[in-house]
Write a structure and sequence with these properties.
Elements: H1 8-19, E1 25-35, E2 40-43, E3 45-49, E4 52-56, E5 62-66, E6 70-83, H2 85-89, H3 91-94, H4 106-116, H5 120-131, H6 151-156, H7 165-180, H8 185-194, H9 196-202, H10 209-222
Antiparallel strand pairs: 1-2, 1-6, 3-4, 4-5
Helix pairs in contact: 1-10, 4-7, 5-10, 7-8, 8-9, 8-10
């Protein structure tokens, strides 16, 4: 994953606040990564494996960085609210939503997930947020099908019929993988919703209520089980 974003600490705090606003919490300590440059990132813990620093994120999951990009690691003097076990296990439920599993599109999702290296839960969360599993869905802006592909995206990723579930899921998952290769997960989702140009222009999640709500919803639906490959 690449670090093309505004300070990650602010970004993660924003996302976590939306995801867990309804959850009970307790105070916990954290660590602060100082990247070479002016960026910082608050994490739960870290460990070293050779030349790799593996950090445990405050909302669950892990990320890896080459040691060369980290200047130093220090205690984070600002405590954070750690979700209770129940809230951490079901972040979507904290927002009153839950991931839809085992639809008729499951084989297509699993196939695209394996082919393009994107966690299947993330693909499902995007589909649910985009179209609520309606293969004939079309937005007022012209986005089409399950993963709401814009015409130019459908052409770029060779979805000749964007309303065909197989073609739509394959193209949408491939596009999502392209974004994940450029941005951290929250920013990749913001780019999927608002476009890569908007994310780069604002240096983070654009200040659009629709996009901010979308990012929080997909992260909540996908939950802490998402694995970045």
């Amino acid at each position: 994953m690449h670090l093309h974003c505004s300070p990650l600490r602010k970004l993660l705090v924003f996302v976590l606040a939306l995801m867990f606003l309804a959850a009970a919490a307790r105070q916990a300590s954290a660590e602060l990564l100082f990247f070479k440059g002016d960026r910082t990132m608050s994490v739960k813990t870290h460990r070293l494996e050779g030349q790799t620093i593996i950090v445990t994120l405050r909302d669950g999951g892990e990320m890896s960085f080459d040691r060369s990009v980290i200047a130093r690691i220090a205690p984070d003097e600002v405590p954070y609210d750690e979700p209770t076990a129940a809230a951490a296990d079901a972040p979507g439920q904290a927002l009153g939503i839950q991931l839809i599993e085992n639809t008729i599109f499951e084989p297509l999702i699993q196939q695209a997930s394996q082919a393009h290296g994107v966690d299947a839960r993330l693909v499902k969360a995007v589909i649910q947020a985009e179209s609520a599993y309606q293969p004939r869905a079309r937005s007022s802006k012209g986005a089409m099908g399950l993963m709401q592909l814009m015409p130019e995206t459908a052409r770029q990723y060779q979805a000749r019929n964007p309303y065909d579930p197989r073609a739509n899921i394959d193209a949408g998952t491939k596009y999502l993988k392209t974004l994940l290769d450029q941005f951290e997960l929250p920013l990749a989702l913001a780019a999927y919703n608002a476009g890569e140009a908007a994310v780069r222009r604002f240096g983070g999640i654009p200040p659009f209520p629709e996009t901010q709500t979308y990012v929080a919803k997909v992260l909540a639906l996908a939950g802490g089980a998402v694995q970045l490959r």
